[in-house]
Specification:
- Helix content is 61%, strand content 0%.
- Helix 5 crosses helix 7.
- The chain is mainly α.
- The protein has a domain of 112 residues: AhpD-like.
- It is globular.
Length: 161
């Protein structure tokens, strides 16, 4: 499977991409823990089958010092004892917000209550936008067939400046 199109090599694609990156930058500048951001992005990317994004977020977690056991168990987080209650709430939100077509209720009241318990309003705003943005990024990657394996941690630092 070869990539279909490089969005960054196209003038309008790069222009839109920069604005997309600016939204993501605002999320990373929130008080939401960086590890939580990466865990949520990794889980949504796994669900959506985006090789590029899965590559990015596994490598970013590793570079940040996350142990391999936590990275490897993200796909089975419900059956793992290595995540905090707050991380579990964020991962549940990520799954339910990603699997909208699979869950007739969308995000459950139970999951929302757990998110409210562990995060303040600013962090919740960042989490909601994070789930939406990673799902959009996954769709971009899958549509144009961005392949995983070539990401180098930090390669996009400063892109949104």
């Amino acid at each position: 499977m070869e990539p279909r199109f490089n969005l960054n090599d196209n003038a309008i694609g790069a222009k839109i991409g920069k604005r997309f990156a600016n939204t993501s930058l605002a999320i990373t500048q929130s008080t939401l823990p960086k590890t939580t951001v990466e865990l949520v992005e990794l889980r949504a990317s796994q669900i959506n089958g985006c090789g590029w994004c899965t590559d990015v977020h596994t490598k970013e977690l590793a570079v940040a010092g996350e142990p391999a056991i936590r990275i490897n168990l993200v796909a089975a987080w419900r059956e793992a004892a290595v995540f905090t209650e707050a991380e579990r709430a964020a991962l549940a939100l990520a799954e339910e917000g990603t699997r909208l077509a699979d869950a007739c209720q969308g995000v459950s009241d139970e999951t929302w209550a757990q998110v409210r318990k562990h995060y303040d309003d600013d962090q919740i705003a960042a989490l909601v936008y994070l789930v939406a943005m990673i799902n959009a990024a996954n769709r971009l990657g899958v549509i144009v067939r961005m392949r995983g394996g070539s990401y180098e941690p930090g390669m996009f630092d400063g892109v949104a400046d």
